[in-house]
Q: What sequence folds into this?
């Protein structure tokens, strides 16, 4: 682990850090439920800063995958979903298979926020999770090491979640903090209070670009620019579809002057991030190592997410050869996840079942 990126920091009460830095484990592919490889990769992953063709392809991709288009042909949409669900069955239906695969291993939970723990809403500042979901996640964290991995900045997602017992990886994993106390699953290990920020040098540049994008997007009704500390989100969920290409062009015109930043596409959002090699998958790996689970034979990571950025985590599990990825979606998506859930309510049902399963196992050992 590159120590120059691990910075000692004082954080506010309730968000002190307790991340233990460990050596990178060897890649031994064990304890993992295989992923069906996607048969095609039509989704546009990376928008180049230059190229009109790329922007047009992105707009076409968004239109083709939008729910409104799917509704225009119900029979075709149903047929496509039926085919997709065969390759990505419901994690609720396959619950027993998942927990059977985890026996003898420590389950570690990784959860995206928007669209996973909370519904997708028009105003990203109002993406509140329900009280029942919060209670469920709190119980989950008492049973298993648990982390929120999100594109949001840590402060914002912490204000939504308000659970001090979790690990938080914000800005797509470029800002990682731990719980307020040494994690109980590693109570026999020493820990040091640290914050992991591999892109700290980009902060002035991110702020500068944010200000420019706010100005540029003012003339596009419905556009919203969000500063997530180590990345910027340009939301176009409330933008007229005819204006998508125009908005993308505005974003591109700003980024032409910043070759150290890259542009990617999320769920009706454009993401501006540093070009460093870091994503949600690498954040997952860092957290596993930091928690002390260096032995691939004794850990079973479960990652639940709904967006393209979560694919980096799904692929990391596949590459490590362990655990399961669960895609949250009501519509077919190219994904490296093994299983699916349709919406946050199903995510909550799955987490509740996991907590109940753990409680039953714990009582049976007494």
A:
């Amino acid at each position: 682990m590159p120590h120059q990126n691990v910075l000692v920091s004082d954080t506010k009460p309730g968000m002190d850090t307790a991340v233990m830095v460990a050596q990178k484990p060897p890649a031994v592919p064990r304890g993992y439920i295989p992923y069906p490889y996607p048969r095609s990769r039509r989704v546009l992953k990376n928008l180049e800063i230059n190229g009109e063709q790329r922007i047009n392809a992105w707009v076409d991709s968004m239109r083709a995958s939008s729910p409104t288009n799917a509704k225009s042909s119900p029979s075709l949409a149903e047929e496509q979903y039926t085919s997709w669900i065969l390759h990505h069955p419901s994690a609720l239906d396959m619950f027993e298979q998942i927990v059977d695969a985890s026996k003898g291993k420590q389950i570690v939970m990784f959860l995206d926020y928007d669209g996973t723990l909370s519904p997708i809403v028009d105003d990203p500042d109002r993406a509140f999770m329900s009280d029942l979901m919060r209670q469920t996640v709190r119980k989950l964290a008492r049973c298993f090491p648990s982390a929120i991995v999100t594109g949001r900045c840590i402060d914002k997602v912490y204000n939504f979640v308000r659970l001090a017992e979790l690990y938080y990886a914000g800005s797509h994993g470029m800002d990682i903090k731990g719980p307020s106390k040494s994690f109980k699953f590693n109570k026999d290990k020493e820990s040091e209070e640290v914050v992991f920020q591999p892109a700290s040098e980009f902060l002035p540049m991110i702020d500068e670009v944010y200000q420019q994008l706010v100005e540029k997007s003012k003339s596009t009704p419905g556009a919203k620019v969000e500063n997530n500390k180590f990345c910027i989100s340009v939301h176009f969920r409330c933008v007229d579809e005819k204006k998508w290409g125009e908005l993308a062009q505005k974003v591109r015109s700003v980024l032409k002057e910043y070759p150290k930043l890259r542009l990617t596409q999320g769920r009706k959002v454009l993401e501006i991030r540093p070009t460093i090699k870091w994503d949600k998958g690498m954040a997952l790996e860092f957290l596993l190592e930091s928690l002390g689970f260096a032995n691939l034979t004794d850990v079973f990571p479960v990652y639940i997410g709904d967006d393209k950025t979560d694919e980096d985590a799904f692929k990391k599990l596949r590459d490590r050869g362990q655990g399961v990825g669960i895609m949250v979606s009501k519509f077919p998506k190219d994904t490296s996840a093994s299983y699916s859930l349709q919406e946050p309510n199903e995510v909550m049902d799955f987490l509740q079942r996991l907590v109940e399963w753990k409680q039953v196992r714990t009582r049976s050992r007494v």
In short: Residues 3-36+88-198+298-365 form a domain with the Rossmann fold fold (CATH 3.40.50.1000). The first strand starts at residue 6 and ends at 7.
